[in-house]
Amino acid sequence: MTGTMYCLTAKDFAVLEAMLMRRRAFADASVPMLERKLAESSIVPIGMIEPDVATLNSRVIFRVDNGPVEMRTLVLGDASAPVGSSLPVGTWRGLCLLGMRIGQSALIKRPDGSGESILLEDVAYQPEAARRAARNVAAGRRPHGLRLVHSATRPLGGAGKIRQTEGDDPGPSAA
């Protein structure tokens, strides 16, 4: 993770700070990466985070070193998640993806000198955006682009009438 700016919610920032404190106590190899992530991040209130940013519990679609596309949910811990569906932020890749925007890529440099490039292709689900959408629906505001369409000739739920006009069905004598 070099020279990249990240965007973290106040909650995600606090989670990473706590993780840093715990890992510093054990001289963990991920401490420098955590320090860089926190130093290179801007903090945004939860309600103001853009929907194209990967936050904790977001479902992200990403690619590692031009490999196949992967989809995972960024989680704090993976004890309760189905195998292969989650990516803990305590891992190198999970930590790197947290706070990235769609289209952003970063390089992970490990202590052994190896590295890999990660590209965030999409944020399929972000809990903060879903919460905003639910609040808008509850407040009576319709989501952008969706509109309720109904017949203007009768009220919703009203029974329709079948109309027969003369000459539609010639009857048995015309056969």
Write structural notes for this entry.
The protein has 175 residues and is an alpha/beta fold. It has helices spanning 10-25, 31-39, 92-97, 127-138, and strands spanning 6-9, 41-44, 59-64, 69-75, 86-88, 105-109, 115-125. A 5-stranded mixed beta sheet has the order 5-4-3-7-6. The chain has a two-stranded parallel ribbon with strand order 1-2. The longest helix is centred in the N-terminal third of the chain and has 16 residues, at 10-25. It is elongated, with a radius of gyration of 26 Å.
Summarize the structure.
With 175 residues, the protein is of the alpha/beta class. It has helices spanning 10-25, 31-39, 92-97, 127-138, and strands at residues 6-9, 41-44, 59-64, 69-75, 86-88, 105-109, 115-125. A hairpin with a 5-residue loop joins strand 6 (105-109) and strand 7.
Largest sheet: 5 strands, mixed
Global structural class: alpha/beta
Q: How many DSSP helices?
A: 4
**SSE sequence, one letter per element:** EHHEEEEHEEH
> Level of helix content?
10-25%
Low-confidence stretches: none
State the end-to-end CA separation.
82 Å
Globular, elongated, flat, extended or rod-shaped: what is the shape?
elongated
Mean pLDDT: 82
Which key phrases capture this entry?
alpha/beta, five-stranded mixed beta sheet, 4 helices, elongated
